[in-house]
Amino acid sequence: xxxxxxxxxxxxxxxxxxxxxxxxxxxxxxxxxxxxxxxxxxxxxxxxxxxxxxxxxxxxxxxxxxxxxxxxxxxxxxxx
Length: 80
Description:
Order of helices and strands: EEEEH
Strand content: 15-25%
Radius of gyration: 17 Å
Oligomer: single chain
């Protein structure tokens, strides 16, 4: 399955952008930041934190639950 968006380091965070963008194109991230797609992206920048705005918009588009997901309360462990 091909997704409509891809992740790209930009402005100190990992942002989601349209998958079809080519190097040199001007566009906007899902959270609305303007960017010019770079020719290369150093691997070290992929370790940046994910933009919460892009993450929420991407998850809504993909039909994925919001993060963090609600978790059920832990089951108490019986004393032995």
